[in-house]
Each structure stands twice: as C-alpha cells, then as structure tokens.
Amino acid sequence: MKTDPDIEPETSWHSMPVQEVFQHLQTSENGLDSSQARQRLDSFGPNKLPRARKQGPFKRFLLQFHNVLIYVLLAATIVTALLQQWVDSAVIFAVCLVNALIGFIQEGKAEKSMESLQGMLAPVATVLRDGQKKTVPAEELVPGDVVVLSSGDKVPADLRLFQARDLQIEEAALTGESVPVGKDIYEADPEAGLGDRSCMAFSGTMVAYGQGAGVVAATGAHTQIGRISAMLAQVQTLTTPLLKKITRFGHFLTAAILVTALATFAFGILVRQLMPSEMFMAAVGLAVSAIPAGLPAIMTITLAIGVQRMARRNAIIRKLPALETLGAVTTICSDKTGTLTKNQMTVQSVQVSEDLYLITGTGYNPMGEFRLQDQNIDPLQHSLLAETLRAVLLCNEAHIYYQENEGVYRLEGASTEGALVAAAMKAGLDQKQENADRPRIDAIPFSSDKKFMATLHDYHQDGGRRIILKGAPERVLERCSHQANSNGQKELDPDFWHNSGETIASRGQRLLAVAFKDVPGDKKGLDEEDTSEGFTLLGLFGIIDPPREEAVKAAAKLIGRCVSVRDCQSAGINVKMITGDHALTAVSIADELGIGDGRTFLAGKDLEKMSDEELEKKVPGVDVYARTSPEHKLRLVQALQAGGNIVAMTGDGVNDAPALKRADVGVAMGKGGTEAAREASDVVLADDNFASIANAVEEGRTIYDNLKKAILFILPTNGGQALVVMASIVLGIGLLGEGGEYTLPISPPQILWINMIIAVTLALALAFEPPEGNVMSRPPRPPDEPLISGFLIWRVASVSVLLVIGTLWHYQYMLSGGASHELASTTAINTLVVGQVFYLINSRFIHEPAWSIRGFLGSRAVLISIAVLAVLQIGFTYLPFMQYIFQTEPVCLESWIRIVLFGIIVFLAVELEKAFFRSRTGD
Ligand code: ATP
C-alpha cells in the first residue's frame, strides 16, 4: 500500500513537468481511491483555512455597554451613587446589566445561526475518486486528488493543471487583478510570480470560462491564499439599513430626551420651586424611563430569528440587508428549469427524417418503449434513429448509474444531457461501449451563450473522424446544409424542421437538435470555425420537464391567480420567467404555471435589438422571455428598475453574476448553481425551488412587520413612562413636603423597575410573531417608506397620553379615597404596567384587529412574557423585601378590577383607532 507523500511546503509545482508532479504526489490523472483519500485526510487535515479568532466572551459582553443610550444610564448610575441614592443607583445599574446580558446572549445565538448558515453554503468540488467523477465537500480534498474545473467553479485548493480547455481564471481574490487570466498546462519559470504561474489554479479564485483538470498540490493553510491571509473573518455582523437608521434615530432620541429632562429639571426648580436634589432624581428617572434601552437588542433578535426561519424554509441569507429588501420586492424574475420546473427531464419525442417516434418512461430510469404510429418498435432496427441516439450519447458529458443501496438510477451531470443518455439506454445502447468504440478526441463545451456543444470522435473504421453538434435547433439548423434520411442524405428542408419543432415545443417540450459532419482522420482538435457550417441534421428531440406543483401554487399566490379559492390571494408581485428555451416551450410551461397570458413573449434576439428606452416600455407587459442568454438578464433588471421596480432575480451560471449583483435581491441556486453565482447573490436557495423565493418574500415581509411592531410597542410604552414623570411635575401631581421635598407619584426607582421588566418580558415577545394572515395579500411596501411615519408619531403620542391619564388618574383617585401615597403609587404603577400588557396584544397586529382568540392566545411568546411579567409584578407588590426597596404596598381586589378595566379601555381605544385607519385606507 502506498504511504502518504512527503510534501515540502515550498515545492515549486509550477516549474515541474506534470508527470513529475504526479510522481511526487503519488497519484495519477485518474486521481486517488477513496481509502487513500481518507488516509491522506487524516494526515494532511481538512482543506480549510483557519478561522479568525472570535472576540472573547468578556469583550463581547463589555461591547454591549458601548451604546449612547447605555452611556446615559451609566452616567446616571454614577451620579446617583455620588448622591448616595443607593436604591436608585442599584436599579439603574441593574437595567444596564440586564440589557447587556440579553444583548450578549442573543448576539451569541445570532452569531451561531449565521455560522450555521455559512456551513450550509460550504463549497463542493468535483473530483476523480476511484476513477469516477464525484462531488465531495471541498473540505475533504487532499494533496493528490484530481479536481475537474468548469466555468463558475471556485477553485477549491491549489492545483497543478494538466488539462485546460479555453480555461480562464479570475484571480482577484489572490492578486487583485479582476481580468481573467488564461491558463495552460506548461511549466512556468521557477521564479515566476503568482500571476504568471499559468499552469496553476489557486484556491479561492474563480473559473470565468472553459474547463480544466488539475491535481491538488496544496490544501488549507498551505495554499497561497492560506499563506497570505491565514485568518479569514467569516462571521458577518448582524446589521441592515433599517438597523442603522434605528441606531441613528437612537442618537437623536437620546439628545431629545436629555433636553426634555433638563427642561423638566429647570421647570421644577424655577416654576414649581422644588428642591434641586429631588428634581435631579426626577429628571434622571424621566431620562432613564424614556430611553428605549432594549430596542437595539430586540431588533437584532428579530433579524436573527428571521434568518433562521428563512433557512428552515430553504432560503439562506448571504447578505443581511436582503432581509428587508425581500419584503419590498415588486418583481421576481425566475429561471425556468429546476426553479419553476422539476428538472426531471425525459425525452418524449424524436423526429428523425419523416418519422416522429414517441418514447415512454419517466426520469433517468432507462426503461421504456419506442413507438412509431402507435406500434412498439425495436429502435436498433431503425438505423437512422439508432444513429441519432448514438450521436447524442457520444456528444454528452452526463452519465447514469445504478445506485445499488437505494435501488434507483442516478444522474451525474446536466439534466438535459441525462435525458438524452436515458433515451439512448432505453434503445439498448451502452455509453461505455460507445465511447470506447468511438473515442472522443476533443470537445467544445456547452454554454448558455452559444446554446450548443460539439465533440470530435474517431468515428469510422477507416480512421475517418466525425464532429457531432448538439444544441438549440436554430443554432444547429443554421449550421446544416443537409439532413440525413434512410438513403443517406438530402438537402435540408428548413421549413419542415421548423414546423415539426413548433409542434413539439407547443406541447411544452424543450427542443434539442443533433447533427454531424465527417472530417479527415488527421483532424486533431476543434475550434469555432469547425462548427460553423456544413453539417448534416440527424434529428430533433422533444424533452419534457413538468412544472413543480409548489411553484404553480407559489406563483398563483404572488400574482393573484387562483389555483384554489384559498390560494387566491394577491401579494401584488409580478412574476416573470426568463429561459433559454424555445418561445413556444416557454409560453406553454408559463401558461401551466399561471404566468403571462399564454401568448405574449419576448425573444432574446428581439430584446437585443431594442434600445434601453424601448425595453423599459416593453417589460411591464411581457412576462415570458425566451431564448435569452445570461447577458439579457442584466438589461432586464436595469429596465425593470428604471420603471421603479424592486427586482429579485435568479441565476445559476457564471454569466448570471452581473445581473445577480445588480438586482435588488440576487437569488442563486444552491444545488444546481455555480459558486460564482452564489458569491454574487444575496440569497441562496437550498432547494433551487421557486416556492422558496415566495416563502422568503413572505418571511421578509414578516421580519419588517415585526421590527415595526417592536418599535410601535416600545416607543409608546417608554413615552408613557416618561410622560408620567413629566406630567406630574408640570401639573404638580405628587406629594409636596413642607421643606420643598417633592415625591413623584411614581418614584424614579419604581419607574426604572417598570422600564426593566417591560424590556425583558413584553418587548421581546414581538420578535417571535408569526406572519399576519394578510402578509401576502397586500401590495409590496414602498421601498422609501420612512421609519418615522406620521402614523408612528401619532401612535406614540396617543398611547403615551392614554397611559398617563390612566396612571395619574388612578393615583389621584386613591389619594382622594384616603389611601397612603405608597398605596396610591403602587396602584398607579400596576395601572401603567397592565395598560402596557393590553397594548402589547394590540401591537401583535399593525392594522388587523386583535380581538380574536388568535389575538389573545395565538402567540406562546406573548403568553409566556405576560406570565413572567405577572409573577414579577406580584412580587413587586406583595413581597416584603420588594416593598422595602420600592416603597410599595399591597393592592386590594377592587383596585385590581379598576386596573384591568383600564387595560381593556386601552385595548379598545387602540382597536378603534386601527378600525378607523382601516376604513380610511379601505383595507
Ligand atoms: P432555463 O432558463 O429554463 O433554466 P436555460 O436558460 O438554462 O434554461 P439553457 O440551458 O441555456 O437554458 O438551454 C438553452 C437551450 O440550449 C435549450 O433549449 C437546448 O436546446 C440547448 N441545450 C441545453 N442544454 C444543452 C446541452 N447540454 N447540449 C446542447 N444543447 C443544450
């Protein structure tokens, strides 16, 4: 058994001939076998870069105090301590501590969830193991592995290339050079710099074009990128534009609160002639209770929960601002294959000469019959059909194998190609045998731009060679002069093929044509010119790919078409299908999905001729784009954006990257997509499914709603607390001693207590709110919707005033009934708290009514937080040591009834307000 190779870190792989590299790494161009790879993984370790060291927990905890709002609280702690107001000082400090603790714990959780997302996006690599192409996690690569590269791949380790076909690699990650550099397989000068080592592909760089294969020379920290930046920061910080706005708003609010506190302080001393020390405490109480200290933590928690919820629904967020943008999306442009359809391609018809053959069976299981005019036939007896099937089998990169343990046939490669392999296998052709009999000399790979591929084979016994060309019918037909028939060949009849293509396409089948050209035996390789003309058409394939049922439903939900009555909602989002397929195929599938009007489409070639202005005018009326190339997507995004749309665009190939970057939300495919597309995107779909985009939009709207709800709840409650202090001083409510000592109806420590317990209980609950019933039936949020709307100001003011009236009224009522100041004040505090509890239930729905069983009992988080609050508040009122600290007294049942009645009044008043706004907006 071979032992592991001994690798010097400084080996100059780039100046070594390929065979020597193989020897050194004890491998060959067929790669390693699984047991060798496993053994090497043990000795060389996983192929990953060491992570940047994360901030230690202590530092993270300290950072929680780094916030203007908290600074004010800390200053108040110190000043009150200096004034020997120990209870106040301790309570204010407790507020800071509790907030920091919540922030610390939640941030930790949020970071974990971001990390697990990173794990879900871990890159993979195509390697040769046991002589077969396999997809493995890039982390499992070891020196000596053979890696196959194709366009859009991220190079997973440092490779010494030994195969390169038009290979171009963008090395910006390593050299900063963003123009792709050509690669080859020849040794470079030993002294060559990184950018000149053209036979090397370096880890972290991107394949921009072409194909290649190389042997892994270095992994993990030993790669060039590993050496340059041994530490890569991986964890994203949780922030979005809205969060930044809120932080800025927080600064403004702090300033405003400080000014108000100062003004109240001055008013108390100058107008009411109160004692400065008492007034100072009152001003501190006012400032502290007005500051929504818990708001930043709650925003972060809401986002973290949203990220997790989306991941559970298969939408993995790469860039956090997308969380908010998703809620404002007005147009979704989606690929067809795999996203809207199942990507289970099956050849159903083959037109060869005048005969249209139908093929039975589904998926990649190579069992099925060939039928001609309703009769089963033996395809190998029909020589032209057999020749056509052989051609698509040879000009093919996919293969189908039987997975013994699962008892199913699996496809390695593209689904369109897999369908062709399955069809040829149904006819009894053996791919291995065919490839051995007619070995491939060279190939031009398929690309979505060219829409064809070509291979060169040692085809004939006499040494003659043959080029096989397969691709979109228009592309193939324009290169053909003849067509094959049973007597050999005759001149091409383009109209016949055109019509037969349309018949097949209008049944929703993807079209693919195949042709050949015989060339002399000394032809060594293929270039563009070899594929430009002189081909003989063999046949035309019709491949079905049924729409996904979930996509049909999701599209219906978004655009408001009815699949079932229950699904008939309209989120007011336009759905557009962008496909490389034939227009009739596209329109037919779009119609099944409910997209478009079943007729209108725009073809790529017409789109190309339009000016930007013309396109901008055209796009609102067209939902199906056919025969497009990835470049068209960029123009479509731009045209839609110019019309004021917020666009989500899907993509999977390397050429989709510019459109994905330009779109407001770039959506890449996690399963079928390239690494290049993923890196350019904001969201990755783990299941490549259109329905997951619709879900992501729903979650995006929910997150935005929940952020708004948190603000709508927290600001009025803080406002209410602060206003109680202010109104008492201004209106002269409270106890006035003979020496000018003034006792507020609710003392500073008491107001701080309320502030703290509301922050840890009620306010947190809203982060867990499920989507509102109508979340997908309203139009998208205007992207420029201001955070501080007139509605918000109104709500803050009205609820604050309501809470103050109830609280101060109850205080006065108790006093006038002969109660002590302590009892009146305990009653007033409970009135304020219960008012806030009821307002929390109002806040569960921004516009919808909350008076329903769902409104009261529908959220576990809300019920738990109310229960915790009740326990704390009962302790506050009835426990002797709390009574000692906070100067409280037990409240009697009668007062509780009044307190709850007040809560109900708050609830009803806000519900009436919502009903009023609903009637005005006609919701
Ligand atoms: P969609 O938008 O539906 O996801 P697409 O834009 O990816 O599809 P392409 O894969 O670019 O579409 O295919 C465009 C056309 O190219 C197909 O209709 C088919 O005729 C042809 N084609 C697809 N795959 C191959 C292939 N492997 N070899 C040759 N021709 C192909």
UniProtKB/TrEMBL annotation:
Alphabetized SUPFAM superfamilies for the sequence: Calcium ATPase, transduction domain A, Calcium ATPase, transmembrane domain M, HAD-like, Metal cation-transporting ATPase, ATP-binding domain N
Topology with respect to the bilayer: Multi-pass membrane protein
GO molecular function, one term: ATP hydrolysis activity
Subcellular location: Cell membrane
Gene3D superfamilies with a match to the protein in the record: Calcium-transporting ATPase, cytoplasmic domain N, Calcium-transporting ATPase, cytoplasmic transduction domain A, Calcium-transporting ATPase, transmembrane domain, HAD superfamily/HAD-like
Primary localization: membrane
Pfam families: Cation_ATPase, Cation_ATPase_C, Cation_ATPase_N, E1-E2_ATPase, Hydrolase_3
GO biological process: inorganic cation transmembrane transport
Entry keyword annotation includes DNA-binding: no
Gene Ontology cellular component list: plasma membrane
Residue ranges occupied by any Cation-transporting P-type ATPase N-terminal domain in the UniProt entry: 12-85
Keywords on record: ATP-binding, Cell membrane, Membrane, Metal-binding, Nucleotide-binding, Translocase, Transmembrane, Transmembrane helix
Protein name from the UniProt record: ATPase, P-type (Transporting), HAD superfamily, subfamily IC
Species per Swiss-Prot/TrEMBL record: Desulfonatronospira thiodismutans ASO3-1
